[in-house]
Each structure stands twice: as C-alpha cells, then as structure tokens.
Fold this sequence. Notes:
With 639 residues, this protein is an alpha/beta fold. It has helices at 17-27, 95-107, 130-136, 157-168, 184-191, 197-215, 227-231, 236-254, 260-264, 277-298, 324-337, 357-373, 387-409, 413-419, 421-438, 477-481, 503-514, 529-544, 560-570, 581-597, 624-635, and strands spanning 38-39, 45-46, 85-90, 112-116, 146-150, 178-182, 193-194, 220-225, 267-273, 307-311, 342-344, 491-492, 520-525, 549-551, 574-578, 602-606, 616-618. Among the domains are: 229-346 and 379-448, Methylmalonyl-CoA mutase (TIM Barrel); 503-635, Cobalamin-binding domain (Rossmann fold, 3-Layer(aba) Sandwich), CATH 3.40.50. The protein has an 8-stranded parallel beta barrel, surrounded by 8 helices. A 5-stranded parallel β-sheet has the order 14-13-15-16-17, with helices on both faces.
Amino acid sequence: MADDILPFSSAFPAATEADWLSAVEKALKGKGVDTLTRKTADGIAIKALYRESDFAAATDPLGLPGEAPYLRGKTAAPDKWLPWDIRQLFTHPSAEETNTEILRDLERGVSSIELVLDCSGQNGVQITTLEDFKAVLAGVRADYAGVALSHPGASGATASALLGLWAETQENAGDLAIDFNLDPLGALARSGRLSGGLDAAFARVAAVVTALGAKFPKAGLVRIDATSAHEAGASEAQELGALIASAIDTLRRLDGQADIAALTKRMSFAIALDANYGIGIAKLRAARRLWARCLEALGLPAAPMRLQGITSARMLTKYDPWTNMLRVTCAIFAGAAGGADIVTSRAFNEALGRPEELGRRIARNTQIIAMEESQLGRVADPTGGAWFTETLADDLAKAAWAEFQTIESEGGYGASLLSGAFQARVKTVREARARDIARRKIPLTGVSEYPLLDEIGAPVAEIDPPRAREGVSDAGLKAIIEGPLASGADATAEALAPIRLAAPFEALRDAAARAPKRPEAFIATLGALAEFTPRADFARNLLAAGGIAPREAVMPPRDAAELAAAFKASGCRLAVICGTDKAYEAAAAEAAEALKTAGAQAVWLAGKAQAPGISLNIFAGCDVLHALQVGHAELGVSK
C-alpha cells in the first residue's frame, strides 16, 4: 500500500531556496528576507529561514534521546500509554469539595494531582491539619496517581511534614508517587517573605528532606520553580537564568546538611509555557542544556532533568475567555513536543475566578486529546535536529547563562532577590513589553485586537468565603520541622508579583461596563464605502478594545452637513473621522468643524494626517491604551 502513495510534493514543480528567496523579495516589494527577522524580549533574533549552517544537525551534536547527558530527554522509548504526566491543579478552599474534584478528575484521565496550599483558603486549598489531608486525599491511591504540593507563600516544610504523616498511614508507603516540592527561594520570590530567614528555612528543609527522603524513596523532594519570574513579566532568558540560579543556590545552602548528590536525582524543575510554542519548545531544550552543564561543573553524574511545564497564567484573559482554550492548547503542544515530563494545564476561565467543572474538563481533555488522538508523545524528541528549534535553544541557553552569571555575581539567587537586583531587571523587561502591548505591537486577540463587546461570558465556581484558622497544631509536628533549629528575623524582598498581559485593557473594559450607559463614539466617514471601510474597521476595533461602542449613520453622509446631522442624531460626544488621505486633504477640516458645531466635545482622526480641529490621531503603532484612556476621560467614564 505504501508504495502506491504519491508524495504530496509531486503535484508541484521543483523549487530551490533561490526561488523561495526571489518570491519573498517580490512579496516584500524588493526588501530582503532579513526584514522578516524579529527579536525576542532578550534581543535574540528569530529569522524567517534556518539552514544546516545555523545548526549542524547532520553531525548529531546532542547525542541521542535517553543517553547522557540527556540533552534530548530521558528516554528513547516514550511510555506508550502515558508519555507524559497529566497533572491537574486544585485550588478550592474546601477539603471536601477538593476531594470530589480530585476523584472526578482522576476518573476522567488526570494522572497526578497538585494541591495549591493556602492556610487562609483565599488562594488555595485550606489545609492546616493532618485531618485536612485525610479529607482531601480520601480514596486517592498515591501509588497509582501522584500527589504533589504547591507552596506559593511558604518553603513547604510544614505541609510536606503533614503529607508525610498522611503517607505513613497508606499501604506500600515506600512506593508512593509523591512530590513534596520544597522550594524556599521560590517562596521568597513569590511572596516576598520567608519566615525565620533563609538560614532557618533551609535548615528546616534539610531536616524534612532527610526524614522524608529516607521514608519515601520514590518521592520527589525539591522543586525549583521559576514560573514566578515568568508570571511577573520576565523574559525567557531571565526565567531560565533564575531557574538555574535558584537550583545552584538551593544546593549550596543545603550542602553539608543533606546529601547533595542524592538530592539532585530527586529534584524537579518548573517552567512556564505560553502560546508561542516555538519559544516554549526551545525553552525546555535550553533548560536541559543548562542543567547538564551545571551537573558537569559540580562534578556530579549526568542525570535526566525532570521538567514540569505549566501553562502561563499571565497570557490568560478575562474578556473573550474562550480564546484561552487556543492559548492553552499551544502551550500544551510545546510541553509535549518539547519533552516535558509533567504538563499542567490551567483552566481557560482561571482569570475570571476559581474554575468549575467546565474549565477543569477542558484543561484535562485538551491534554488527553493531544496525547491519545494527536499522539504527540509517540516519538522521542520530535523536534530534535530542527534547525530553528536547536538554534533558538542554543541562543536561549547562552542568554540564560549570562543572566545566571549576573545573579551569581550578586551573591546568588537569594541575595539577588533580597537586594532587588533581579526584580529590577524583570521590571525593565515587563515595562518594555507593556509598551509594545499598549501599541499593539504584541496583539492580544479578543482584548486589544478583535474584541467582542457583546461576548458570552464563561462560568466560574461559586465559593463561600473560608473561615480563618489557627496555625498548625498537630502533636509532634513542630518537633519534626523545628526542633532545635533557631529562627532569625524574617527574610524580606520585593515580591515577583504576578501580572496578566491583558490587565490594562481589561481595566478599561471593566470601567466601561460599570458606566450607567455604554460609552459610544461616532464613526464619521468621508467618501464612498470602499474608501472609508479600512480605516472605519480599524477605528471600530480600536474603540471596542476600551469598551466603547461605535455608532454610525444609516447611510454614508455625502457632505459635512449630512455628517453633522447624523452625529447629532447619534447622541455621541466623541467622533472619529475615517477616510482616505486624499479625502482628509479635501474635507477633514470642514468635517471637524461641522462635528464640533453639532456638539462634538472631541474629534479624532484615523490616520496620521493633520487637520484643524483634530484633537487626537489614531493609527497603526500609536499608543492605543493612551488613546482609550483619553477617550474614557472625554466620555466621562470613571476609572
């Protein structure tokens, strides 16, 4: 049968690279292909075309999958049934409701669970006692389905000790698949505070690691989580640099208190994945190269890097949340194709509140479809040798290594956080990206581009406010995690506060939604329909990004008098003139004067043309966010 299949390319004439370049230059009207090159936030060039000269894939410089130093992943034969771990997050404050969600998700395809812990219950599962763990994990077989912890605001020693106490009561305790995910530096980065100081925190972690490591030989002990840097606005190289710097600083601070050689084999690493799957795949590959270099420098044996890809929260939007499904799908693809060992997909409606069953179902089913229908895990290292992917991974690794060296020169990751040096560099990148988002150089579909004013919202869970609880009081627990260990003053730093890229535009939409009447602007067209439509569409799209609805004349006005009459009938206070440059030259000034006479408080113009009476020009590349803020002020919309 296979011999009878004709190659698809046989239907097309043979083409060379020179033919392709000639066609590109023709499409670009004489400009070279280099004009298509774009740069990442780290200044790394991404070209339109890559060749063998960019990365010598034919000589196989990275070795084979499953072979040391494991630059191409831990195995050459992915598990047929579960090529990666489908891990689901759980954040409902109620232990009972969380247990219901866990059992339902495990029954429907999730292979491991991750409990996001918060003693207050405001941002995670409210667990403060051993009884809470028993309630949350009732009916869960941790020898089949992994149980992981996330400690957003703490080092994790207390919660890990509690989970260890629960695990001791289970059958086959030594076979349990548990990830305690202790991470003091990650907690400092996320919350800006570490109780008792760094030395005391690491002393507690060392005591817990030693005790739990002996009792649960298959458990993961430490997770190095750099997603907080990503969520705060960091670049890819900054996130990777923080990942490696945090790992090295963690090992350095635990050296002499725990078995470092054994610990490196029981560490995992968390990286954020967003909708740019090309960069996501390269980021995972770069991480492996960086860690392999670190193990070599430390004189430790090569070991596979256990990578967890977590879909980005900063890319999610409140408005047009259904588009988040596509964003998360792209991130999952990056995790699968990039060889992540664990993939955690956030619910599409997470930006709106706590996800309910629809959000949770889509999150898990997207991974199941990618795994079982698209079969993304059937091939080991599917992007290995791809010129673009390997080149970008190398460039990312080099940029991340430079960031790592900078952090080390500042005294290590902990010291850099305490001094605020790392946060300052992240802030620079975050602000530069914010400027590009404001100008729509980085478009946000459904928010800054193609917004829907009458969209259908997504459901979220209704949650009763949790009651405050006292601290942990289990008998003997304090002796396990504290004992003779002395505490000092709390370590404090500027927290890497999470952002969402769409938040500034969403704030305008929120303000418009709170207004007694939806703000409106009149689209004042000049000329024939075919002439004004491109700029009228541009203006409608721009206004809608701020929650401002466009109003128009029933028929295109033929002169300034008809334009003024249509504007007056609309009841609007703001008008946007839309037409061609030729029409502006002939009639923009007269139209602006007529509109103001008819009651317009402000007149804008779509384009860069200048004319008397125009208060603001909107055009491709302008500061759209600023224009919309001005529009809100002129329309009397409260912030």
